[in-house]
Amino acid sequence: xKIAIFNDNQLGxxxxxxxxxxxxxxxxxxxxxHESLVQxxxxxxxxxxxxxxxxQEGKKYNIEEAAFQAPVPSPSKVWAAPVNYKKHQEEMxxxxxxxxxxxxxxALFLKAPSSVSGPSDSILxxxxxxxxxxxxxxxxxxxxKAKNVQYSEAKDYIFGYFALLDISIRGxxxxxxxxxxxxxxxxxxxxxxxDEIHDPNNLSLKLWVNDELRQDxxxxxxxxxxxxxxxVASTHSxxxxxxxxxxxxxxxxxxxxxxxxxxxxxxxxxxxxxNVKLAE
Length: 280
Description:
Keywords: Metal-binding
CATH class of the largest domain: Alpha Beta
Organism: Aeribacillus alveayuensis
Helix content: 10-25%
Family: Belongs to the FAH family.
Largest sheet: 11 strands, mixed
Pfam families: FAA_hydrolase (PF01557)
Number of strands: 19
Number of domains: 2
Shape: globular
Domain Fumarylacetoacetase-like C-terminal: 77-276
Mean pLDDT: 95
């Protein structure tokens, strides 16, 4: 099932080329969409059939005309995976000589939850004269409280998946600072529930800047796959429903600038495009 938040924080189910308004089918508060999402995830098993039926009968909106919001509006944490593809390490060393280690030594890092934005929002560049790069990633949302989760059980804690952009300023500052500006974590266009993704660790991942294909990878090349990322994140930090994990980016990372259009596509999940602008 593809679960979306769209227009005025309405709850939608995406079917083919339409998003169906199911806001009134469940206990959904448009003024508190994140809290409503957490409640929906908690009761999803009992609501699934009801939502599926409503998706066939409710008011439909053309996908192209809907304004999709971040499908996870206000996570308490965003854990992100650094240098989680070997070829990305190689390209960073070639350009900057600054990626001597991979995730196996670096572990995860935190991004500010306030950096999350939606597929209808623009990426706002805070500096005109600093190199700022795109990083295409698979992201997922935690569906239930998780602490010290073993790898073999990790999939049971993932509610669903979405495309994610990890926007990154290059420089000597800590990763958290360089990646936590407002609009630096666009996600979307919706959540695809985990039961519809046969193997999240074997999905193609592509990114274009304007019409140029920059990144063309696959999650099968992850060093720490989705389940390992969750295991590591939950080891010393309690994960709560609605928390996000970003799994890292493959090779092909490059700069973006004012006026660009960035498009990300994740197999079996979806795609979205965002404009790039200088922050005012």
